Amino acid sequence: MAHTSLASKVYDSILARLLSGQMPPGHVFNRRQVAKELGVSVAPILEAMLELETEGLIETLPRKGTRVRMLSVEDLHGQLIVREALECQAARIYRGEPVERHVKRLSRLAAEIDETELLSPAHIKQEVRFHHYLVSLAEVAALTANYERIMKIGLLYAVQTLHPAPESAPRSSHVDLVNALLTPDPDRAEAAVRAHIRTGKEPLLIASAAGSDSQFPTSPSWLDD
User: Within 13 Å of residue 144, how many CA atoms lie on the same side as its CB?
Assistant: First the structure.
C-alpha cells in the first residue's frame, strides 16, 4: 500500500512537470536523475512512468529511451472525438435538475472563464476544471475517470502548442452553455455541449478528415489467435 501511494505521488509530480511544460516534447527521461530529484528509489519512478505511458503521455522507443510524447494533429483529433463522446453522454444524464442545483457555482466559474484571455494557460486550466465539474454531475465514475484521462492528452497538446489566440478566433460562451444545460431535454443538452466543444475546432476536424486514408477496419491484436 505504501509503495502504491509513493508511486502515485511520483506520478502526480511527473504529470505536473509534463503539463506545465517543464518537460518539453521529446524530452528524454533519466530515471535515476528523476528519482534523485524526488528523493525516491527507481522502483516508484518506473511504476509511475508505466502509467504515464499507458495514458499516451510518454513513449519508449528502441535505442532512444523513454521520452515525452510528441503529439500530432491526428492525436488531438482523436482526443477531441473521444472528449465529445464522453461529454455529450454525460450531458444527457446530468441535464436539468442537477445543473439547477449547482447553477450558482457553475455560472460563477463560467463567467470567470469567459473573461479570461482565450487559450492562455489560465483559460485552458479553468476550462478543464469547469467541464470536469459538469461531467462529474452525471455521477458515473467511469465517465469521470475516462474524461480525466483523455483531457491529460488535450492539456499536454495545449502546452506543446501554446500561443495567443487571434482576436478573430471564435469563442463559445460558458455562461450560455450553463443556461442551455438547464433544459430537461437530453437531446437539447447533448446538442448544446457538442456545439460548445466544436466551436473553433472545425479546421482541425476538416484537416484531419482530409488527411486520413481510407482502409478496412482491423480487429484488436489481443483477439488474434
Answer: 14
Bridge partners for 60 per DSSP: 66
Domains of the chain: 2-68 (1.10.10.10), 73-209 (1.20.120.530)
Dump pLDDT digits (tens) for 23-62. 888 889 888 999 999 999 999 999 999 999 988 889 998 8
Round to whole Å and give the CA distance between 55 and 31.
18
Quick check: pTM over 0.70?
yes
Give the DSSP per-residue string, the chain. -HHHHHHHHHHHHHHHHHHHTSS-TTPBP-HHHHHHHHT--HHHHHHHHHHHHHTTSEEEETTTEEEE----HHHHHHHHHHHHHHHHHHHHHHTTHHHHHTHHHHHHHHHHHHTSPTTSHHHHHHHHHHHHHHHHTT--HHHHHHHHHHHHHHHHHHHHT--PPPTT-----HHHHHHHTT-S-HHHHHHHHHHHHHTT-HHHHHHHHHHPPP------GGG--
